Amino acid sequence: MTSADLAGDSSTGAKLLTAAREVIPGGVNSATRLVGAPHALTGASGAYVTDADGRRYLDYHAAFGAILLGHSAPEVDDPVRAAIGGIDLVGWGVTEPEIDLARLVVEMIPSAEQMISAMSGSEAVAQAVRLARAVTDRPLILKFQGGFHGWQDAVARNVISSAESAYGLDPLSRGILDGALDATVIAEFNDLDSVRELYDRYPERIAAVILEPIPHNVGALLPDAAFIEGLRTITSEQGSLLVFDEVITGFRHALGGYQQICGVRPDLTTFGKAMGNGYPIAGLAGPRGLMERFSSAGGDVLLAGTFNGNPVSSAAGIATINYLRDHPEFYERTYALGDRIRSGLGAIAGELGIHAVPAGFGGVFALYFAEGPIRGYRDLLRDNDEAYIAFHRRMTDRGFLMLPLALKRNHISAAHTEADIDRTLEAARDVLRSIRD
Ligand code: PLP
């Protein structure tokens, strides 16, 4: 929306967006929030968000996947309020919530023996990268085309490079030293040969292979079992660390993360987003032998962060994980709702004769505007991003909020119902027909 559009609009939302642009660059605090006619939002409860002019939207955006139990879930908010009444930030020693959270993560995540807390997924990934380089004494990080691991320099390459790039830049940003970009090497997801080639080209130089086990930042490419197992074998043989970035998949797909589902144990795992149902909490977990390289345990990898492990964020993490542990039906329900929307979208696309294929896993769904099958990054380049943008815009107009970026995913929370899914499918049928015609 241009400033001129906003100036001619007398709605409360337009006034707020105009005011935001005066004091916040672009009016938003994360660039991708600007995509797709941004709104000023004033309320969020359960499966819905409300904008400044009182319009309600059924929310599949879920704050890029941070919301898992629904907005303002009392199961999390009540313990958070109680934590606010307890000890606040002291910055010395340790507090009980930090211990409880780390204990829960260690209990749930197959590869975890210890965990450090962070405030965002990007920080957790930065710690993983630095730890991997220190442990292996090697410089390079191998990531996959299309994978997104936060805004840090070490992972800023080849995030998305389809025609209508979600981020517009590859690397993601200017201001990154060439040396940092050169230290990232890129392979293709689901293609072990591309990984082997990089090991041949850079013998004993690759510190870690990092991947989203399901690359949800390009929708949902499903990993071949042989691919993930092959990565485990190659990294072990080559003396690199295998890092699962479970910032999206962690807790959302299973209490033990995707590693519990695929049965492969990475060396390091990063978490964030859904772990605290919207509160800022993230973590890096791994075996004691690696984690004790952090300076907190007398090692040589700096661990610092004023807000790390703060009681409020820790309380949110504890409450979310406890909820999931006490409600195993959460997974059954969200998986069933995910199947319902994926098969519904597939049926509608078939009926209308549109090249659109639903994808996803569990409670996450995506819609690719391309002929299937979509197995790897190259297939994604066939995506008709313009069709997705039109789909998104028209769904938003009808009160259904999805991620505004093509090749992204949408999220079903504990607060969504079958009726919500059915309403969404009805609207999607009309919108897809209008796009076709
Ligand atoms: N890793 C993955 C897989 C992500 O999707 C993201 C964010 O979208 C991050 C890391 C970075 O997390 P944060 O935005 O909390 O810094």
UniProtKB/TrEMBL annotation:
PROSITE patterns: AA_TRANSFER_CLASS_3 (PS00600). One of its GO terms (molecular function) is transaminase activity. The keyword Protein biosynthesis does not apply. The keyword DNA-binding does not apply. Keywords: Pyridoxal phosphate. Its cofactor is pyridoxal 5'-phosphate. Coiled coil: none annotated. Belongs to the class-III pyridoxal-phosphate-dependent aminotransferase family. This is Glutamate-1-semialdehyde 2,1-aminomutase.
